[in-house]
Amino acid sequence: MKTSSFYVAFDEAHKPRGKIAGNYSHLKEFLDSQGFICQPYMEFPITRQNLSPYDILVIPCPDFAKFSTNEIDAIAQWVKEDGGGLLALSHAGGDKGRRSNLSELVEKFGLSFENDQVLDYSKNFGLENLPEVVNFSPPHPITEGITSLCFRAGCSLSTVGLNVVPVAISNEESDPFSTPLIVTAEVQEGRVVAIGSYEMFRNEIPGGFEQPGHQEFCSNIFQWLKTEYREKVKTGEIKPKVTIQEPTQNYDANGITANVGSQPSFISAKLNLSSHIVISDKSDLANLFHGLLDEVTVLKDQIKTVIETIVSSEEQILETQKATESAEAATPLELPPNIEPLPVPEPERLTEMPEKPKSMKDTKKKTDTHLPKTKTHQPQPIPDPLPMTKEEIEVELETLKNKLNSIENLKDLVESKYKNKSYTKAQYEKQIERLSNDLNRSLNRIKELEMQYTKGKK
């Protein structure tokens, strides 16, 4: 079926902190006005097939939940081969703070979220955890027309990969300084945007969705995530690699499934409760209770829907049962007078088993050593990924070598700031550790590429 509508799925199967029926409702209303169709995505586990109706997948900061290896592979395949657009959002502390593995997913595209928090004591919107971002380089469609953003309670990112572009960088006075905050990637047919702050799109908070520039930034992101591949699929220019059907569920104003007579997908989901919560400051405590209120609202609406579904289904079942019972209670079938009913045969008495021969009374088990050994089924090995071409290896090597130079320059800058007492010893050690880790990752990747390059020459 051909359609010009673009469907946006907001993952709700992995306990996200952002929900379109709660603290992301203004974002949903804005996207609706832009012509997108936003729906909560409650499928578990995620597969390439059940992602096929959607053009964009938003993962708004999973909280105390992890993606399985199969789900990560399915999302990566949907992005790369089916032209999906992925928006991945994290929070201060990264995966470690949220007890998630979002980085394992975005690493498929050459980037990852750091386990830190971006602070700026000089250039901010009233608090150090509300840093103002003004460094947008190189120019990119998602930052077109943007001069300032509030990076509220976010973490930084690191990049190692081809076609990965940091489009927003922290200030030199920030901690960490001059590091990627917003990253884009184009991978085969799909596109990815990764942002370390999911709170940039929350309702009615300082530095949230109502912050000047954030709505324009949001519009740029979702327009860019509409890939050329999905456009061609919708117009019929190309045939999709998997069967694509429009989502069949109907949603009410709150984004809750309203199907009658079918089981909502959230019924089968497990409710995971954690009794151990670490609160670092008052803002974390406030955010926790805001999140709980949002979840209570969503749960209340879901329970109402389930009750309506059960009542409707029960009435249908009772009506069917009554109809069946009334049919059974009707006058029994009468035979014509010239036909007699068949007699009911008495059950036959089973004969007793004969006594077991003496030759078979040996209780010791005898194994036949002459039987051929059966071959156990060996699982088929997973095929190796397609090797990179010589040109692709050379381009990535050149990118990584340039990155090494940048890291060395940043280390020199950290050394000079420490000597000038602009950094405390703790800040100095933290920056050096981060840069050293980034350096080691890049060097390891260079070794891998050089081995591939040497092997390809033989």
Task: Characterize the structure shown.
The chain is of the alpha/beta class and 458 residues long. The chain has three domains: 6-248, Class I glutamine amidotransferase (GATase) domain (Rossmann fold, 3-Layer(aba) Sandwich); 253-263 and 287-318, no CATH class; 390-457. The chain has helices at residues 25-33, 48-51, 69-82, 94-98, 102-106, 214-225, 228-235, 282-328, 390-419, 425-457; strands at residues 6-11, 36-41, 56-60, 85-89, 111-113, 132-133, 149-150, 157-159, 164-169, 180-187, 190-195. Strands 2-1-3-4-11-10-9 form a seven-stranded mixed beta sheet. The chain has a two-stranded antiparallel ribbon with strand order 5-8. The two termini are 49 Å apart. The model is unreliable at 250-280, 317-339 and 365-369 (pLDDT under 50).
Q: What is the helix fraction of residues, given as a range? A: 25-40%
Nearest-integer average pLDDT = 78
| Biggest sheet details | 7 strands, mixed
Give the overall shape, derived from the CA principal axes.
globular
**N-C termini distance:** 49 Å
The residue ranges in which pLDDT falls below 50 over 5 or more consecutive positions are: 250-280, 317-339, 365-369
Question: Measured on Cα atoms, how large is the radius of gyration?
Answer: 31 Å
Number of strands: 11
Q: What name does the CATH topology of the largest domain carry?
A: Rossmann fold
Query: Into which percentage range does the β-strand content fall?
Result: 5-15%
Number of domains: 3
Which homologous superfamily in CATH is the superfamily of the largest domain? Answer: Class I glutamine amidotransferase (GATase) domain
Question: Given the helix and strand composition, which structural class is it?
Answer: alpha/beta
Give the helix tally.
10
Strand sequence of the main sheet, in spatial order?
A: 2-1-3-4-11-10-9
